[in-house]
Every structure is written in structure tokens, then in C-alpha cells.
Amino acid sequence: METRSRELQAAEYLEKHRIKELVSYLTSALLFFRPALKTLGLCTEDEDLEDDGHRITLDQFKDEVNKRIKDIWSAF
After folding, report:
1. DSSP states of 8-19 as a string?
2. How many domains, the chain?
3. Which residue from 20, 59, 63, 75 has the fewest beta carbons nearer than 10 Å?
4. Using one digit for the tens of pLDDT, what is the confidence trace for 23-70?
5. Which domain holds residue 33?
6. C-alpha of 75 from chain center
7. What does the DSSP assignment read for 10-45?
8. CB neighbours of 45 closer than 8 A, spacing ≥ 6?
9. Does residue 1 lie in a domain region?
């Protein structure tokens, strides 16, 4: 009976925190974001996007994207 209760608690937790949606989103990110970055010119073919173990904040990501966009547009 306790196992059933724990399973129910786990299922409720997953639903409450939308874990299934998060996993789906992360899977999509792995499949689609890299090609999109290449299309936008924010990632070159030979650029290595492997995780180096360092955490990247949203601000750091935005700064890097803005820097690359400025580099791209400076040619025009």
C-alpha cells in the first residue's frame, strides 16, 4: 500500500512541476536548436558545442548572442 502511495506522490509531483513537458522541451532543444543556431549564423559548422562543465547564465548567453549578431551585422 505504501508503494502505491509513493507512486501516486511521484506522479503528482511530475505533473505539478511539468517534468514531462520539460523533458520533451529538452529533447526538442537537442534536435532543433543547433541547426537553428547555424542557420542564424550564431554557430559555425566546426564549432564544438560540447558541455565543458561550466554553468552558463542567461545573461552570459544573451551577451554572447548579441556579440555574435553585432559581428555579423558589422559586415553590412
Report:
1. HHHHHHHHHTTH
2. 1
3. 75
4. 888 777 777 776 777 676 666 666 665 666 666 677 777 888 888 888
5. 1-45
6. 29
7. HHHHHHHTTHHHHHHHHHHHHHHHHHHHHHTTSS-T
8. 38
9. yes
